[in-house]
């Protein structure tokens, strides 16, 4: 297997740095990176052996100006590995210093007593001598027989999807409701209303957002407003929003009635997906 990639666009380096930092802040000790000719896909499982709950796919053409990849076989031309997002974020942070951003960031698979993903960062300098910073991030290659375990699931089409632009407001509301109860109710309607609610012995506490853009809604054919609701673990969505380092433009909440919440954090053309299973009271 062989992988070499060269990044020269500061925006692409920043995008990858922010993604790695977000995954690290989500307390992910290890994530999966799947490399192919077309995509770099980061994914995360809730616990060892469980299915993928978080993933983000980045197009290789937007990341790398030069790319060489030889996968496990000609038929399965991919490379799949475990690595630490915190170490990746730390390595990429070195691409910026007091003199400006790096001239280039090169990634390649190496074997230095153990398999590594090596970051070679060419930094700007005052003199004629170039400055190079090298980081070796240890990896664990995943055998092809286990690749299906690290593929993100096919998510059912939501009953209702609502786009939320006021990400900071929603994060603040969820943080406050989480302090009252560990369970959070999310209710969305086809007319663009969103309600975040929790219940305690002292009473019911709710915040309402109106006239939100509706991205997906099932057609009831009777003109009535459709409403979808589910209860989730408040800590999971609070941790996701608190970990966000992507400078998210908006998030999308896709509700599958009483089953699943599909959260998508969007920044330009990058989409971080996160699945939260519904809980019963």
Q: How does this structure look, described?
A:
Helix content is 19%, strand content 46%. With 281 residues, the protein is α+β, with helices and mostly antiparallel strands. It folds into 2 domains: 2-150, Proliferating Cell Nuclear Antigen, CATH 3.70.10; 160-277, Proliferating Cell Nuclear Antigen, CATH 3.70.10. The strands form 3 sheets. Strands 5-1-9-10-11-6-2-3-4-20-19-18-12-16 form a 14-stranded antiparallel β-sheet. Helix 1 packs antiparallel against helix 3. The protein starts with a strand and ends with a strand. The model has no long low-confidence stretch (mean pLDDT 91).
Topology (SSEs and partners):
Blueprint lengths: L1 E6 L2 H16 L5 E5 L3 E7 L6 E8 H4 L2 E5 L8 E5 L1 H9 L2 E2 L2 E2 L2 E8 L3 E9 L7 E11 L18 E5 L2 H14 L2 E7 L4 E7 L2 E7 L4 E4 L9 E7 H10 L6 E7 L3 E8 L2 E8 L4
Antiparallel strand pairs: 1-5, 1-9, 2-3, 2-6, 3-4, 4-20, 6-11, 7-8, 9-10, 10-11, 12-16, 12-18, 13-14, 13-17, 14-15, 18-19, 19-20
Helix pairs in contact: 1-3, 4-5
Organism: Cloeon dipterum
Family: Belongs to the HUS1 family.
Protein name: Checkpoint protein
């Amino acid at each position: 297997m062989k992988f070499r990639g060269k990044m020269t666009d500061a925006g692409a380096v920043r995008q990858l740095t922010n993604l790695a930092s977000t995954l690290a802040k989500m307390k992910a000790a290890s994530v999966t990176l799947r490399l192919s000719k077309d995509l770099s896909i980061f994914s995360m499982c809730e616990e060892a052996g469980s299915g993928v709950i978080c993933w983000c796919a980045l197009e290789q053409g937007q990341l790398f100006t030069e790319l060489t990849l030889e996968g496990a076989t000609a038929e399965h031309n991919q490379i799949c590995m475990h690595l630490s997002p915190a170490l990746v974020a730390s390595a990429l942070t070195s691409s910026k210093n007091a003199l400006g951003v790096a001239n280039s960031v090169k990634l390649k698979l190496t074997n230095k007593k153990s398999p590594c993903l090596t970051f070679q960062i060419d930094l700007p300098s005052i003199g004629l001598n170039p400055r190079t910073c090298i980081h070796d991030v240890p990896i664990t290659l995943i055998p092809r027989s286990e690749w299906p375990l690290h593929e993100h699931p096919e998510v059912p089409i939501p009953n209702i999807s609502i786009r939320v632009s006021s990400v900071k407001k929603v994060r603040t509301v969820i943080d406050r409701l989480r302090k009252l109860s560990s369970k959070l109710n999310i209710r969305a309607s086809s007319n663009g209303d969103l309600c975040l609610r929790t219940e305690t012995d002292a009473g019911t506490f709710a915040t309402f957002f109106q006239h939100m853009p509706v991205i997906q809604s099932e057609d009831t054919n009777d003109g009535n407003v459709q409403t979808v609701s589910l209860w989730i673990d408040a800590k999971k969505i609070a941790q996701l929003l608190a970990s966000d380092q992507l400078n998210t433009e908006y998030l999308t909440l896709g509700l599958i009635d009483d089953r699943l919440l599909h959260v998508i954090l969007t920044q330009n053309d990058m989409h971080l997906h996160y699945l939260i299973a519904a809980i019963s009271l």
